[in-house]
Amino acid sequence: MRRLPPLRALRVFEVVARHASVTRAAEELAVSHSAVSQQIKQLEDYFGQPLFMRSGRGISLTPGAIAFLEDVRSCFDRLAIASEQLSHRTYGRVLKIDATPSFALRWLIPQISAFQLANPSIELRISTSATDGIGHLNEPVDFVVRRDVMSRPDHMCQRFLDDVSTVVLSPTLLKQKRIASPEDLLEVPLLHLKSRPDAWTRWFRTTHVATPEAIAGPFFDHFFLSLQAAISGLGAAIGPYALIKDDLAAGRLVAPFPQHRLVGPGFHVLYSEGTAKDRAGRVFLEWLLKRDSEAG
Q: How far apart are CA 137 and CA 95, in angstroms?
């Protein structure tokens, strides 16, 4: 068995040495001056030699105690690090979230920094799927985020964010084409999404503007690609406010006809009953469900 000096006395020794004062050490430890002196005496008796030299009202370490202090501090530092690592291993939790690439890039990643700072023991790992469906998900995940209602046995689905879309384009293109009415948009390239090929037809229907049966324009695999194309002045896109609000606020995009909107079912999150009962899962879910009200 290891032969160790009294650990409480070692702690007192380190504090006294750091302050070079019994009185200030007593204040930090919230004990009496006498109690500190007793612990130091106990340690000196253990080693059979003095640890401090006393001159007047001051104290200083003996040469042997100076070297010993460095080892004591090193041991305390290693103990603190080991304790922190054990705490993370004991209470740490990894949550896996699957979302579409556009939602992960444009909403989830910018939002989660605040969550991670407030919950350092919960690690969020984000994966993306290039489809709105969930049938292909073979790897276990804690949360699935999609722009629609989802269903899976022993799982729950909740809406957490509005899905309201409108037309956006760059300020430069708006001025160049002198777009003053919805009809004027038929004179600019219209950017389409493969996952929502009828979006422009449905949007023009809200404006009562007659359109060709097939509206021409390039198609993109992901919303964030059509958004970047719109920012670059390549045409007009349709996108949800939740994913473009920063671009609107910064002036990279403008919404010329905000009164004409497409309202979808909302962004939803799917999770199992077990995830809902897990402490980390519950913390993340509560945070996620607050996003819509705070955004509003």
A: 16
Cβ distance 140 to 96 under 8 Å? yes
Task: Give the integer Cα–Cα distance in Å for 150 and 85.
Answer: 38
Q: What is the model's pLDDT at position 120?
A: 85
Q: Is residue 223 within 8 Å of residue 106, measured between CB atoms?
A: yes
Query: pLDDT value at position 296?
Result: 46
Q: Are strands 52-55 and 58-61 parallel, antiparallel or unpaired?
A: antiparallel
pLDDT of 3-46, one tens digit each? 888 999 999 999 999 999 999 999 999 999 999 999 999 999 99
Best CA proximity match to 233, nearest among 295, 191, 182, 276: 191
Q: Is the dihedral of CA 8, 12, 15, 17 positive or negative?
A: negative
- Residues 141 and 136: their CA atoms lie apart, in Å, by 12
Work out the angle between the directed axes of helices 22-29 and 7-19 (0-180°, nearest 10). Answer: 120
Q: What are the phi and psi torsion angles at 238 (to 5°)?
A: -120, 125
Residue appearing with tokens 């077990």: 274
CB within 8 A of 211, min separation 6: which ones? 186, 200, 201, 204
pLDDT in tens, 228-264: 999 999 999 999 999 999 999 999 999 999 999 999 9
